[in-house]
Amino acid sequence: SIAEIQKDVEYRLPFSVNNLTININILLPPQFPQEKPVISVYPPIRHHLMDKQGVYVTSPLVNNFTMHSDLGKIIQSLLDEFWKNPPVLAPTSTAFPYLYSNPGGMPSYASQGFPFLPPFPPQEANRTVSSLSVTDTVSSSTTNYTTAKPAAPSFGILSNLPLPVPTADTSVQISQNGFGYRMPDVPDEFPELSELSVSQLTNMNEQEEILLEQFLTLPQLKQIITDKDDLVKSIEELARKNLLLEPSLEAKRQTVLEKYELLTQMKSTFEKKMQRQHELSESCSASALQARLKVAAHEAEEESDNVAEDFLEGKTEIDDFLSNFMEKRTICHCRRAKEEKLQQVIAMHSQFHAS
Q1: DSSP secondary structure string, 268-318?
Q2: Is residue 121 part of a domain?
Q3: d(CA 182, CA 220)
Q4: 3-state secondary structure of 128
Q5: Rounded Cα distance, 209 and 207, in Å
Q6: CA distance 74 to 176
Q7: Is 278 found in the same domain as 290?
Q8: Residue after which a domain boundary falls, among 43, 61, 89
Q9: Consecutive 10-residue runs of the chain (355 residues): their mean pLDDT?
Q10: How many other CB atoms sit within 10 Å of the CB of residue 48?
Q11: CATH number for 52
Q12: How far apart are alpha carbons 65 and 222 in whole angstroms?
């Protein structure tokens, strides 16, 4: 299932082991096989055949590669070693402002027929975000959490755009948007109950109305109700702000759709012009010009032979014969000389590229 990314330059081989899909990339240098190939994997893994970053293969078979080595057997031995000693994913680096997790085994995003556009990696619906500590006051016990991307409304191509995932301290954002709300601490004992008699406690235990009434007087519950009201108000305020942004978002969405339509038209025009340019370049190639010169020289030669036959049959005067015959022969020899010269140029060009 090896995929040819660029002919005679780059190849990709997906490989699965222990529910882990690894893409083995094989890059052939310009002087291959005199130079050794560059073999890398994605995502980075931990294995004794990999470098410290877990990206490039440092197997002795690759490091000692010669022009007599069999690259196919080297790749097969690499796969066999991965089967015997399965690799593990390398820790994700947090040095970038945004983290994207590439789903293993999925091909990169197609560029919609544009060979000059780089591929865009698809995004996962579920991304693991590492919580980074900004100040010493943030609890070090919070290491990571997984958040699911909410279902976005269908906006055509906009729904396929990736969502940036911040890697900065998220504890402040969590407290603002309501996620991860911390309940008030439940005390070990309730001083209010110590003042009640045994009969009152028994009645409270037997009658839910009395228990509920006592429960509603707890300061912890009052704090939860207050926090809930504040949260509802903040959500309503945020919803109103979002509604105010809806016209602007719709206008920008329409602009993107118009630009996408313009891009489609420009793509179609570009492909037509590329096709026309290819046809013109084919018709004006050296081999095509040589074939036309050869046909034209043959036609001029036939015309000169016809003039000579007419003269031998007495159909033309000698003066007309001399002028017409010399003209046709001159054209014939000029075309043949040009055709031979062009053939020499083509041969020299082919020999230069071969060397």
Answers
A1: HHHHHHHHHHHHHHHHTSHHHHHHHHHHHHHHHHHHHHHHHHHHHTT-S-H
A2: no
A3: 12
A4: strand
A5: 6
A6: 55
A7: no
A8: 89
A9: 84 85 89 89 88 88 88 89 87 44 40 41 40 36 37 38 40 45 70 77 79 78 87 93 92 94 94 90 80 87 87 84 88 89 85 76
A10: 9
A11: 3.10.110.10
A12: 74
